[in-house]
Design brief:
It is built from 15 helices and eleven strands. By secondary structure, it is of the alpha/beta class.
Length: 363
């Protein structure tokens, strides 16, 4: 499975490697929300969380669905700028329908995302779906989604202030430390692109990227546990390096958006051991393709049965049967939030199966 981006006829100058402060801020916020995904950033996440003012931490929790289980597309700019302020200015110029549709695409839906869905500002089905998905995140998140739909302009201004306050509180210092590494990485890949071609530049960026070329044309292939396609012909492709991104590997390929790939530049260490019997039980639970797809979702956060059914276009009883197999293998943790029972992949257990599998479901 993979995401392919058609670049047939696209000139080299329309393919750019460039760091983005907004994209890296989105990754930093995700790290604070899901520190278990980023063990090598444990010290940073712990220190930063401890230093947050309670009021700012409370606001981050209110809006966390925009970066916790996935990253809202507006947080990964197709045209990165030098400063966060410039990128936020670009967001201000985005129309309400596109912004709100991106902000409320909460579920990482593999059935809806590649096709695109109407904005919840103009489509009743999309509106009800967005509110249902937000409700599973919690009452405050549900209220935030309702406010965004009722008052999109005011809510967008609230989001900008939140990101600016994060910049003042912790991200400006963080960005000063990582921007040199990101700029150096982007320059190196740009030079490879110029001197040796796109295939070499992609290979240097990540083993999860490759160039395919045949009689049908040229394509960038992103190795992920999802199937998707995007057409960049007549447009452009941006590749954004990230220090905070690993193990996640993002491909923005929604209809109506310029394709963007965000790849990690930092190394990692994940390891562990378990008895052969236990490992075999867990591997057998993951042999079914739907359970692997569910694992990809559940690795990003806690989801209800109905959310998973919506994301994959199957019935809730089918989801429950697959979850029962995963739970029997000891791969899930569950929690109750009001009338919802939320399921999540147990990262510590999965990490003991093997770092390759863990990295693939977190991409």
């Amino acid at each position: 499975m993979s995401v392919t981006i058609d670049i047939t006829g696209l000139p080299p100058e329309r393919i750019a490697f460039c760091p983005s402060p907004l994209a890296e801020l989105g990754n930093a916020l995700h790290t604070l929300a899901e520190p278990a995904h980023h063990p090598r950033l444990h010290a940073w996440a712990t220190a930063t969380s401890a230093a947050l003012e309670p009021e700012l931490a409370d606001r981050l929790n209110e809006a966390e669905f925009m970066w916790r289980s996935t990253r809202s597309d507006f947080l990964i700019p197709a045209q990165p700028r030098e400063t966060l302020a410039e990128e936020l200015d670009d967001l201000d110029r985005m129309d309400d329908e596109k912004f709100v549709g991106s902000a409320l695409e909460i579920s990482c839906s593999t059935s809806h995302y590649p096709k695109g869905v109407p904005s919840p500002l103009v489509d009743e089905w999309s509106r009800c779906r967005a509110l249902d998905l937000a409700a599973a995140r919690g009452p405050r998140q549900a209220a935030f989604a309702e406010r965004m739909l009722a008052e999109p302009t005011a809510t967008r201004a609230w989001i900008r202030r939140l990101l600016e306050d994060c910049d003042r509180a912790f991200f400006a210092d963080t960005w000063r430390r990582v921007r040199v590494q990101l700029a150096s990485d982007a320059r190196h890949k740009t030079e490879l692109l110029r001197r040796k071609g796109l295939a070499e530049a992609l290979a240097a960026a990540s083993p999860g990227l490759r160039l395919e070329q045949d009689e049908r044309g040229r394509r960038i292939v992103v190795d992920k546990l999802v199937q998707g396609r995007a057409d960049a012909r007549g447009s452009a492709v941006t590749l954004v390096p990230s220090v905070f991104g690993w193990p996640h590997f993002f491909a923005l390929y929604a209809p109506g958006w310029q394709p963007v790939i965000q790849y990690p530049v930092a190394g990692h260490e994940v390891g562990g051991a378990e008895s052969v019997e236990t490992v075999m039980l867990r591997l057998e639970a993951l042999t079914h393709p739907m359970r692997r797809n569910l694992s990809r979702h559940l690795a990003r956060g806690a989801f209800s049965t109905s959310e998973l059914a919506d994301a994959y276009g199957i019935t809730a009883p089918e989801v429950s049967r697959h979850l029962a197999v995963l739970k029997k293998a000891g791969l899930l943790v569950t929690q109750r939030r009001g009338r919802y029972v939320l399921h999540q992949l147990d990262i510590s257990v999965v990490s003991r199966i093997g770092s390759d599998f863990l990295e693939s479901v977190l991409r």
